[in-house]
Amino acid sequence: MGRRKMLCERHEKGDSQSGHSVAAGGYHAAVSCDPLPREVRRDDHRVIRGYAVGFGQWFFFPGIEPALAFGRAARMSFDCSAYGVYEAAHELQFCYRHHVDERVLLLAGDNLDRKPGEVEHLKRFVQGVKEAPWSAHWHPPTGYLTDYANGRRVKTRQRSLPL
After folding, report:
1. Are the C-beta atoms of 147 and 162 separated by less than 8 Å?
2. Cα-Cα-Cα-Cα dihedral of 46, 139, 79, 21, to 10°?
3. C-beta separation of 133 from 141 below 8 A
4. Counting beta carbons within 10 angstroms of the beta carbon of residue 142, is it exposed (0 to 12), middle (13 to 18) or buried (19 or more)?
5. Would 85 disulfide with which of 26, 59, 98, 113, CB 3.0-4.6 Å?
6. Which segments within the chain are labelled E, that is strand?
7. Beta bridge partners of 60
C-alpha cells in the first residue's frame, strides 16, 4: 500500500475557486470538491466539515450561523462588492516532504447565502453570542445563559429569551 499524497502534491499552490486569495487563512489552496470528504481526526491529518465565506479572502467556520453573519457583515462594508457562503471542509495534513502542516479548503455546491431562512440562522447566531458573550468560538444556543468559571463553560439556570 503506497502512501497517501500530501496536500501540496494534490493541489496547486494558490489555486482558488472564484479567485479569492488564500493568504488570510494560510491555505495552500481553496478548491471545488463535490462530494466533500468525511471528517477525519488523527494527529497528522484532520478534516473538519463546516462552511466557508469568500469575499476577496477565504474564511472557514464550523457552523452556518457565524458564516452567514460574517458574510453579511462583510458585504455591508464599502470594501466588499460580493460574497459567497459555501458548504466546505477544512483539511489539515502534516507534509512529510516540507515538515509543516498544510491546509486546504474544499468547497462544495452553490452559494448558501441570501436564501429563504437566512434570518433564522442569523437569529440563532445572535442567540448563541448572547448566551456565551465571553467565548471566541461558536456555541449553538442552548436556551440558557452561560458563564466562564475556572477555565470552564458553565450553564447557568438563567434562561435566555428567544429573539
Report:
1. no
2. 0
3. no
4. middle
5. 113
6. 29-32, 40-41, 45-54, 58-61, 84-95, 100-108, 144-149, 152-159
7. 52
Which cell is 10 given? 494534490
**Lookup: cell for 138:** 461558536
Residue type, 76: M
Q: Under a CB-based contact definition with an 8 Å cutoff, are residues 15 and 33 in contact?
A: no
Place of cell 474564511: 59
| Long-range contacts, 138-141 (Cβ 8 Å, 24+) | 138/61, 138/62, 138/63, 138/65, 138/66, 140/63, 140/65
Domain range summary for the chain, segments of one domain joined by +: 7-108, 118-159
Query: Residue 132 to residues 51, 60, 120, 143, 159: CA-CA distances in angstroms?
Result: 21, 20, 18, 11, 12
